[in-house]
Amino acid sequence: MTNITNITFSELKVGDCSHLSHQVTESDIRLFAASSGDNNPVHLDAEYASHTRFGHTIAHGMYSGVLISRVLGTQFPGPGTIYLSQSLNFCAPVLPNDTLTILLEVVALSDHKPVATLSCQITNQDEVVVCKGESVVLVPTEKQTVAMPPLPAFTEVDH
Amino acid sequence: MTNITNITFSELKVGDCSHLSHQVTESDIRLFAASSGDNNPVHLDAEYASHTRFGHTIAHGMYSGVLISRVLGTQFPGPGTIYLSQSLNFCAPVLPNDTLTILLEVVALSDHKPVATLSCQITNQDEVVVCKGESVVLVPTEKQTVAMPPLPAFTEVDH
């Protein structure tokens, strides 16, 4: 297990940032399809997708949202964070093998409650913005160092 | 393969609805963790989660978003739909074994473009709203019946 220490509300300042880089694989897309139940062929069928406006299979739009939620839950602010709301604008398609950079920045802190608003921007390796939005979270007020469980490991099997 | 016929913009009317029911399993939560990379222990570690405000492991908030995107991509409007934006308000925790009902309703249709705005509401078996928000999508203008690929099947393996 890896230990992760969260960031508390009193430690956060407007302008604080966190980022994560992730290269999207075909396997990520297939795992997301299984997790979501979304088997739209634009994500899974290369022949179908080649005839769409994208010319290629693309990742599910909501996969970008999932990566934002990963940053919130695992690193910034991390354990103890409660998700209140999220907005997402899907600006450009994400293709297999794209390397995404997910950047979160604190843009507002409530005066009354331990609530932070963070801007979210996801860019690809060509610096094209593929998704942007805003997260609102209840930030932990108590410092904690948490043993993060290993990520469950899944392997694809034949039907 | 199952064939799915999409709904075109000219067929949509304000007030049209679609829904999906889904019982959330522990396996869904573990698969989402693997797909997202989010191993926050509140989702995976029963002992840790028992000491949180929830008293139990909970599903990732963004799993609700994923279920909304599934409805858009697979049934309403279905194949050919392009995701433009999504807002999500996480209102209550989702626990393993909760049966969720995802309801989408058309609330606005653009006069100028084939763009629909849909309200989204997810309720659990006790009729508690766990998530609500709004989707904006580019709706297909051409009718198509599409062979939906089988959902990829994954099985959990030991590390």
Helices and strands in order:
The structure is a homodimer of 159-residue chains.
Chain A: E1 2-5, E2 17-23, H1 26-36, H2 41-44, H3 46-50, H4 62-74, E3 82-90, E4 99-109, E5 115-123, E6 129-138, E7 145-148, E8 153-157
Antiparallel strand pairs in A: 1-7, 2-4, 3-6, 4-5, 5-6
Describe this structure in words.
The structure is a homodimer of 159-residue chains. By secondary structure, chain A is of the alpha+beta class. The first copy, chain A, has a domain at 2-25 and 61-143: Hotdog Thioesterase (Thiol Ester Dehydrase, Chain A, Roll), CATH 3.10.129.10. Helices cover 21% and strands 37% of the residues of chain A. Chain A is built from four helices and eight strands; from the N terminus they run ββααααββββββ. Chain A has helices spanning 26-36, 41-44, 46-50, 62-74; strands at residues 2-5, 17-23, 82-90, 99-109, 115-123, 129-138, 145-148, 153-157. Chain A has a five-stranded antiparallel sheet with strand order 2-4-5-6-3, with helices on one face. Chain A has a two-stranded antiparallel sheet with strand order 1-7. At the A-B interface, helix 1, helix 2, helix 4, strand 3 and strand 7 of A face helix 1, helix 2, helix 4, strand 3 and strand 7 of B. Strand 8 (153-157) of chain A pairs antiparallel with strand 8 of chain B.
- What is the CATH architecture term of the domain at 2-25 and 61-143 in chain A? Roll
Helix and strand content put the structural class of chain A at alpha+beta
Question: What oligomeric state do the depicted chains represent?
Answer: homodimer
**Mean pLDDT metric of chain A:** 96
**Residue share in helices of chain A?**
10-25%
Shape, principal axes of CA atoms of chain A: globular
**Sheet with the most strands of chain A?**
5 strands, antiparallel
Low-confidence region ranges of chain A? none
Number of helices of chain A: 4
CATH topology of the domain at 2-25 and 61-143 in chain A: Thiol Ester Dehydrase, Chain A
Q: Helix and strand string of chain A, N-terminal first?
A: EEHHHHEEEEEE
Please name the fourth-level CATH homologous superfamily of the domain at 2-25 and 61-143 in chain A. Answer: Hotdog Thioesterase
Radius of gyration of chain A: 17 Å
Strand order of the largest sheet of chain A: 2-4-5-6-3
